[in-house]
Specification:
- With about 140 residues, the chain is an alpha+beta fold.
- It is globular.
- The protein has one domain: 2-Layer Sandwich (VC0802-like), CATH 3.30.2130.
- Strands 1, 2, 3, 4, 5, 6 and 7 form a seven-stranded antiparallel sheet that branches.
């Protein structure tokens, strides 16, 4: 499992991919409701945070106030790699875009405002290209 640690190679090879779905952040006090399949869960003292497809949250009657697009960075980043999250978040922040990052074992997943997800993808592709050009 050769996860990448070099920041230049991580950025150059991130190959961001926008999922077609709409995702929401919600929370429950007990178990995950039937019919809801979270893509992310986070246990907090206040409850279990779920990131789920918007249509699943709607059917289950789960409240939310933020609808996100999901961008997966296809590079296999090492969990101890330094700088990837900062570089990506900085690029998006400079354009006024918020970014909620979740690290999986193989990839990083960015949740950005759904209506601006296409713009986020453009920015990330630009960052990746600039990194690839600087590595040459």
């Amino acid at each position: 499992m050769n996860a990448e640690r070099d920041l230049t190679r991580l950025l150059a090879g991130m190959r961001p991919e926008l999922d077609a779905g709409r995702y929401v952040f919600t929370t429950v006090d007990g178990p995950v409701p039937a019919g809801v399949v979270p893509v992310v869960t986070v246990a907090e003292p206040e409850g279990l945070t779920l990131v789920v497809r918007q249509e699943e949250a709607d059917v289950a009657g789960l409240p939310y106030d933020y609808v996100a697009g999901r961008i997966t960075l296809r590079v296999h980043s090492a969990l101890d790699a330094v700088g990837l999250t900062a570089a990506v978040a900085g690029e998006l922040a400079a354009a006024g875009l918020s970014c909620n990052v979740v690290a999986g074992f193989h990839h990083d997943h960015l949740f950005v405002e759904h209506d601006r997800a296409g713009r986020a993808l453009e920015l990330l592709n630009g960052l990746s290209q600039r990194s690839a050009d600087s590595a040459d």
